[in-house]
Amino acid sequence: MREKLSLSSARRIALAAQGFADPRPTGAITRRHLQRVLDRIGLFQIDSVSAVVRAHYMPLYARLGPYPMALLDDAMQTRKRLLFEYWAHEASLLPLETFPLLRWRMARAEDGMYGGLAKFGRANRPYIEEIFGQVVDRGPIAASDIEGSKGAGGWWGWSREKHAFEWLFWAGRITTHSRRGFERLYDLPERVLPAAIYNSPVPAAADAHRELLRISARAHGVATGICLRDYFRLSPADMKGRLEELVEMGELIPVRVEGWDRQAYLHADARIPRKVHARALLAPFDPLVFERTRAEQLFDFRYRIEIYTPAEKRQYGYYVLPFLLGERIVARIDLKADRPAGILRVHAAYSEPCAPPDTAAELYEELKQMRDWLGLERIEVTPAGDLGPALSDIVGRSSALTPPLTKA
Question: If you write DSSP's letter for every residue of 185-243 in order, what string do you get?
Answer without folding.
Answer: EEE-HHHHS-HHHHTSPPPPHHHHHHHHHHHHHHHHSEEEHHHHHHTTT--HHHHTTHH
